[in-house]
Each structure stands twice: as C-alpha cells, then as structure tokens.
User: What shape does this take?
Amino acid sequence: MPDWLTIGIRFALYMNLMLLFGLPLFGLHALKGDERQNNIVLPFRTLTLCLAPAGVALSLFSIIGMTASMAGTTLLHVDRASLKAMIVETPMGRAWSVRMLALLITFGSGVATKRYTASKARMMVVLGSASSLASLAWTGHGAASDGMFGTWHLIADIVHLLAAGAWIGALAALAAVLLRASAKMSGSHLALTHRTLDCFSRVGSVIVGLIIASGMVNSYMLVGPANILMLPSTLYGQLLMAKFALFTLMLGLAAANRFRLTPALAQAIKQDRTLSAIKLLRLSLIFEASTACFILGLVAWLGTLEPPMST
Assistant: This one.
C-alpha cells in the first residue's frame, strides 16, 4: 500500500518550491518596472515571505520522513541520533542542509525587496529559490547513479525541476491575473493580461523544450530501452504513462492558449468585447493548472517507487 503521508509531503514540498521559484521568475521575464512591486500586479514579496518558511517546515517533515523510512519506523518514533546521522552522514542530508540555507537566503532577500525597488534582491530571491528547488534532485533517483552517467542524470533532473517550476509558477501568476473580478478589469489590466500571456507563450516554448529534452534523458536512464515494453505491467510504468498522457494534455492546452486564445483576446480588446475571450482563457488555464497538479502528484508517488533500471 502506498505511503500516502510521504507522498503528500513530497507533493506539498514540490509544489511549494516550484511556486517559490516560478512566481518571482515570472515577475522578472513577464513584467516591467513598477509592475514587479508588491501588490501592483501580484503580491510577490508577500508570497516569498510565506512560501519560504513553509518550505522550511515541509523540508523538516521531509527529512524526518526519509529518516523514518530508512530506519523502518514511523514519523513519531524517529530519534534525534538517527535524524542527526541522516543530516550529517548522507548525501540526502547534505542536500537538505543546502536547501535550508537556500530557503533562508530566499527569505532574507524577500525581506530586502522592501528596500530595493528591483534588481539585486529580486535576483537573489530567484537564485535562492532555484537552489532550493534544484536540491530536490539530490534526494531523488537522479542522484543514485555514479560516474559520468550519474552526472548527466543529475543535470537532467535539475533542468527538469527548474523548467517545471517556471511553468507552474507562470500558471499560478497568470491565473491570478486572469481570475480578477471582471469589474476590476480596466483597459490597462486587459492590456497587461494580453502582454503577459503573449510573453509567456514565447518563454513557454523554451520551457517546454527543456522539459521534453530533460524528461527524455531521465526516462532513458530510469527505464531503459529494454524495459519499455514492460511498463504497462508495473505500477511504476503505469504511473509514468499516466504522467506522459497528462503532460501531452498540458501541451495541447498550452498550444491552444498560444495560437488561438491569446490572439483572440488581442482581437477582442480591439473590439471592446472581451468577456467571452476572458472566460475561455480562464477555463483553459484552470484545466492546465489542474493537470499540472495531477502530474506533480504522480511525480511525488513515482519518487517512492523503484524504477525499472534499479530492479
């Protein structure tokens, strides 16, 4: 039976760190000047100051859960000596320590954004959150391989995590922009909505390319060509195929947004008839974000299972 508590903690941690990285990154590539200020478009600083401590708490639960799993006990029965040994003596513990430091740097940089209008503090938020998200690769299957094979696997895992975080953060930011009450959607807000959607459409192409390329590397190293035909007969393979199917659905929704719904919004703005275009974009974005959540749930579950190449 799956360890649902472990899977739930992994899911929450992945979602937290991806939002912590993806939201400020969206502010840097999609917004301009004063738009990046807290509460002008989105409460970037407030979100950072909430998500970073939540990431610390979830990381604590995560390291306790990993210790319990290795010791063959429950979360409530993990002793201090075992937890210390996990943190000090294992690669997973060292990755956890790096993540905690990165989260503290991210939080401190978020505090500093109150004094700095843009640049340095915001860049430190992005770099700190990127480091905390990348540290998850050292606690997953990507860190289990040795030599050059392991190095490429780890790099692909990190790229996959960062690209996914950029996509999920952008989806959350666009949802916040699009789901604003219609009565509050002024002409300037509609123009901003179209510009951010159009900007992400172009950036999203790079993100999708990175996800596909790094995903292919990871799949090759975790599954291997010889095991492809065996995937339908194993739980790992079934979950992996479900993940691929959902990702394909996300690609279809993203393509519809880029090539049909976003241009339709531009045309609707010119004609001052935006209600229908906004509704379609909202619906598409809700489906895309929901699909992303299901994919993260599958990723959290897959991380608790042995891939074919390890058996």
Remarks:
- The longest helix spans residues 235-271.
